[in-house]
Write a structure and sequence with these properties.
Layout (H helix, E strand, L loop, with lengths): L1 E5 L3 H18 L4 E5 L2 H4 L7 E5 L7 H11 L6 E5 L4 H7 L6 E4 L4 H16 L2 E6 L2 E6 L5 E5 L2 E6 L2 E5 L3 H8 L5 E5 L2 E4 L3 E4 L3 E4 L4 E3 L5 H13 L1
Parallel strand pairs: 1-2, 1-3, 3-4, 4-5
Antiparallel strand pairs: 6-7, 8-9, 8-12, 9-10, 11-12, 13-14, 14-15
Amino acid sequence: MRIALLDDEPKENENLYALINSYAIQRGYDIKCETFTSGIELLTRDRFDLYFLDYVMDEMNGVEVGRALYERFRGAVTICYLTGIEAAASEVINAEIGAVGFLKKPVSAKLLYQKLDRFYKVSFSGRLQLKNGLSVETVYAREIIYAEAADKRTRIHFPSGEGTYRHSFSEMERILSAYPSFFRIHRSYIVNMLHVKSYDVKSILTTNGDVLPLKAKDFAKVYRNFIFNEIK
């Protein structure tokens, strides 16, 4: 797992780096961290698996960096914000930039480890073996933007493109139900809530720019509960 730490205060980066390094040793995980004090510098680098971004910075704040990352990598990023500002969590959510985590500074080791455990389980244990033609393809659940019924098969949309798999839509729904981020919004669509950019009463805009029809009346409640559970 590759993790980027961005804070314009080097000491904060050092403290978080030490906590994550301790976590990696305790869990026996292969984690490589890189620290940055500039959002501009971070944006020149290849994609990391997880980003910890300071919310308040002089050069570019965390929201600006998050938006730039989402645009560059077409939504295929996972961001956790760090801030001592109590109201920042709701502002991050309202900014609709896809933040799936929030930790107050100074960061608690216990809460950080819970966040990393959840991310590791969802993202790195979430490997699916899907039938593609005569072969079997491995995909990560976190990379799926949404699944779409396609006759007797299922078409899955990723940041890099799409693929059609030899699974019925009902079978795919059963497979994806193991992951809390997936929700069926229509008889023909299952969306990954990690990739919802915005929504209204009739449609959902995903991070790759697609607009999906929304028929599930309880989506707003389910989505809010999911996001706030991620932030806790």
